[in-house]
Amino acid sequence: MINQVFRWFRPAPHTPRLSPAEVARLYPAYRWRVFEAAFMAYAMFYIVRNNFAPVAKEIGEALSYDKSMIGDMLAGTAIAYGLGKFVMGYFADRSDARKYIAIGMLLTAGLNFLFGTTANYWGHLFLWTLNGFVQGMGYGPCARGLSHWYSSRERGTIFGVWNISHNIGGGIAGLLAAKCAELWGWQSAFYVPGIIAVLGAIYLFWRMRDTPQSVGLPAVEEYKNDWPPDEKEAHEQELSARELLMKYIFPNKLLWILALANVFVYIARYAMVDWGPTYLKEVKGASLTAGGFSTTIIEFAGAAGMLTMGWLSDKLGGRRARVSVIAMIPLVFAFAAIAFVPAELLWVDMVLFGVIGFLVYVPVMFSGVMSLDLTSKKAVGTAAGFVGFFGYVGRVIQGKGMGWVAQHYSWDAALWCVVVCTVLGIILLAFLWNVRPRG
Question: Do the beta carbons of residue 167 and residue 300 sit within 8 Å?
Answer without folding.
Answer: yes
